[in-house]
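Q: Got a minute? One more chain.
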Amino acid sequence: ARTIRLPIHITEKLNKIKKVQRELSQQLGRSPNPTEIAKALELEPAQIREYLTMARQPISIDLRIGDNQDTELGELLEDEGISPEDFTTREALRQDLERLMAELTPQQREVLSLRFGLQDGKELSLSKVGKRLSLSRERVRQLEQQALEHLRRRRLHVREYLAS
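A: Always. Here it is, folded:
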């Protein structure tokens, strides 16, 4: 029995694919490729690949592997997530930066946010920020400088993050 049940329509399609796969293997004397199976079933090769991917059995991360069966598969998988320490540090930095940004005027906050992509990750040029806020390029530059100067004076609040 499968660990994860597939919907009935997918199971039926997989059965048809397996049947055609066996027939083509006998005719061709080799394993057919997805394009050949797709042609026989009047489907797209991408659909065949998708169905065959669904048919793969999942394996347990508790599976013991190695010469002596002394290692679990899960032990070999790299954790790509952020460590709890890094998460805590980033969250504290985010909160401190929010507090510092709150000390700026709304216009300065908006200029820095747009210039450095703090909202959406997209950094804008002085002229683009100016167009968006109906300000001259020079006024945007002045607001940015004023805001950065204010933040530099208050940098003691974030110095510990910069050291790490």
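A: Residues 8-28 form the longest helix (21 residues).
Q: Perfect, thanks.
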